[in-house]
Amino acid sequence: MFDMIRQRHALLHEQSLAPLFTRWDAAVLRQCPTPQMNSIVWNIWHLLRIEDITLSRFVANVPQVHTRDGWQAKLGISVGHMGTAMTHAEVVELSDQIDLSALAAYQQAVYAQSAQILKTTEELDLQQVWPESHMRAVVAGEAVCLPAIVDGVARYWGALNVGRFVLDYTQVHPNLHLGEIGVIAGVLSPA
């Protein structure tokens, strides 16, 4: 089963995410088609932040790539959290400010660390659920989400075991956002 997860994760990054940076010009990547829709770059950034947070902190319990390597400054944005519950104005601001070549590099860095983590899945206790103290230390202490949603995020993630983090955040969550990217692209450049 984990061979399939590793293969699908590689395909996600190599064939789905990496090509997005050259498929459209910067204007298309940055545009929010409506106030109810995020931009393509916001979706890429968000799914990478979530993968980085969850695989780093709740699967391997190692530092996030984002924090360890100073990606917030490299990306040229004022936001270090994962983006959930941002206002439309905040999404537009991030989409306008983010350095696209740095985002492509962050994608590669997250992929490299996640792929390394996924090589060890057979050694992990997939049934492990993190204690509330660890969950709170990450969610609140590392400011991975907006303060208004800390309790909800800690409660939701606190109920997941390591196996669910692997499956949900290398497969399910990224593919939901790839679907959203497809809808945004269809609105911006209908066939």
Q: What fraction of residues sit in β-strands?
A: under 5%
Unreliable residue runs: none
CATH class: Mainly Alpha
Query: CATH H level: which superfamily?
Result: dinb family like domain
Average pLDDT level:
96
Helicity range of the residues?
55-70%
Radius of gyration in whole Å, from Cα?
Answer: 16 Å
Q: Please provide the ordered H/E string of secondary-structure elements.
A: HHHHHHHHHHH
Question: What would you call the structural class?
Answer: mainly alpha
Global morphology = globular
- How far do the termini sit from each other? 37 Å
* Number of continuous helical runs: 11
Largest sheet: none
CATH architecture: Up-down Bundle
CATH topology value: Four Helix Bundle (Hemerythrin (Met), subunit A)
Work out the number of β strands.
Answer: 0
What count of domains describes the coordinates?
A: 1
